[in-house]
């Protein structure tokens, strides 16, 4: 089968790989669509020691069951939770399976979805409407990340979300999906900060929010009730904490830089709530499939599709900032 393989930093290439082995309680999926995630791009640059050369990346997927050793019929169309969880630890039994103490991951500890076929435990499959667009279904994973983050944030906000002035830092997929969901949840004042002019235009057109270049127009200090950092660099963390009002909430999603100093004085004296989030639960994924299918995230015209054979060029375009779309989805 064809697979797009990470071979060395800043290089992926199409290779021939063996058809996946069918193991007990697993299925083999024919991949119908797979998105390029920011974490895939991070690995592509050689910045993730957990993802080593020789690996097939890709975890934002939709597919069709072609071989099965579990109670699911061949021909069933599905998306999937790329987090392989144990189902037994304290977090799994609490329904917080994203924090599973024994989790592994598709496209990290086992071959991913940048291929014609991929194996995965049947317990990781997520039902979807059988007439759902495959590209839309492949957005379930990043959209669920945004949904999980907003649901956590709403527990901490002192006023209902529609009353909050909100800032989203970063116009990649998670940032744009967060802006779209904020608007769907009734938030009228949404500003998106993004350095890429093409993505600012896309955000204004598709999410109906104001988009600013933070290099030229830094968000004003103490001006937002709610801030989402969908980048997670040292600079964006500083921007987020500066922009949030006293008593406000900062949701930290991105993880471009693993560590940096933050303004602990403001965090303390202004009673800022700083939240971290990691991915989603199975419940979030199921809710997100429904939300994507019923139009909560809009028409999704901003998503760009390319062939799997064009994957190397797609990675290069994303790395060099030439892609206007916040999400490129590859179709094998």
Mean pLDDT: 95
Euclidean distance between termini CA atoms: 10 Å
The CATH homologous superfamily of the largest domain is termed Medium-chain alcohol dehydrogenases, catalytic domain
- The residue fraction in helices comes out at 25-40%
Number of helix segments?
A: 10
By CATH reckoning, the class of the largest domain would read: Alpha Beta
Judging by the overall fold, what is the CATH architecture of the largest domain?
Alpha-Beta Complex
For the sheet with most strands, the description reads: 7 strands, mixed
Count of structural domains: 2
Strand content: 25-35%
- Contiguous low-pLDDT stretches (5 residues minimum) are none
The string of secondary-structure elements, in order, is EEEHEEEEHEEEHHEHEHEEHEHEHEHE
Task: Report Rg.
Answer: 19 Å
Q: What structural class results from the helix and strand content? A: alpha/beta
Give structural attributes.
single chain, alpha/beta, Quinone Oxidoreductase, Chain A, domain 1, Rossmann fold, 10 helices, 27% strand
Helices, strands, pairings?
Layout lengths: L1 E7 L2 E6 L9 E10 L2 H7 L10 E2 L3 E9 L8 E4 L2 E2 L5 H4 L10 E2 L11 E5 L3 E3 L6 H4 L2 H17 L8 E5 L3 H12 L4 E5 L3 H11 L2 E3 L11 E6 L4 H10 E9 L11 H6 L3 E4 L5 H12 L10 E4 L3 H9 L8 E4 L1
Parallel strand pairs: 11-12, 11-14, 12-13, 14-15, 15-16, 17-18
Antiparallel strand pairs: 1-2, 1-4, 3-5, 3-9, 3-18, 5-6, 6-10, 7-8
Helix pairs in contact: 4-5, 4-9
């Amino acid at each position: 089968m064809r697979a797009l393989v990470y071979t060395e930093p800043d290089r992926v290439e199409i290779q021939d790989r063996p058809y996946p082995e069918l193991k007990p309680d697993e299925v083999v999926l024919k991949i119908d669509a797979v998105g390029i995630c920011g974490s895939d791009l991070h690995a592509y640059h050689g910045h993730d020691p957990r993802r080593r050369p020789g690996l097939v990346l890709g975890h934002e997927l939709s597919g069709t069951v072609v071989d099965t050793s579990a109670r699911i019929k061949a021909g069933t169309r599905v998306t999937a939770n790329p987090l392989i969880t144990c189902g037994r630890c304290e977090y799994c039994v609490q329904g917080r399976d994203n924090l599973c103490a024994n989790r592994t991951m598709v496209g990290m500890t086992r071959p991913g979805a940048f291929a014609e076929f991929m194996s995965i435990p049947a317990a990781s499959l997520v039902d979807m409407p059988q007439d759902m667009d495959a590209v839309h279904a492949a957005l379930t994973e990043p959209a669920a990340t945004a949904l999980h983050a907003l649901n956590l944030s709403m527990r901490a906000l002192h006023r209902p979300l529609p009353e909050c002035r909100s800032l989203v830092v970063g116009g990649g997929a998670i940032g744009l999906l967060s802006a779209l969901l904020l608007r769907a949840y009734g938030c009228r004042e949404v500003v998106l900060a993004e350095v890429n002019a093409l993505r600012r235009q896309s955000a204004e057109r598709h999410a109906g929010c104001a988009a600013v270049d933070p290099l030229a127009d830094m968000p004003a200090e103490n001006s937002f009730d709610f801030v989402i950092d969908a980048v997670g660099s040292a600079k964006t963390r500083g921007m987020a904490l500066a922009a949030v009002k006293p008593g406000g909430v900062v949701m930290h999603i991105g993880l471009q830089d693993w560590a940096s100093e933050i303004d602990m004085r403001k965090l303390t004296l202004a009673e800022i709530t700083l939240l971290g989030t990691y991915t989603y639960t199975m419940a979030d994924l199921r809710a997100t499939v429904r939300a994507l299918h019923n139009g909560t995230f809009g028409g999704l015209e901003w998503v760009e599709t390319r062939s799997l054979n064009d994957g190397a060029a797609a990675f290069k375009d994303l790395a060099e900032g030439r892609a206007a779309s916040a999400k490129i989805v590859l179709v094998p």
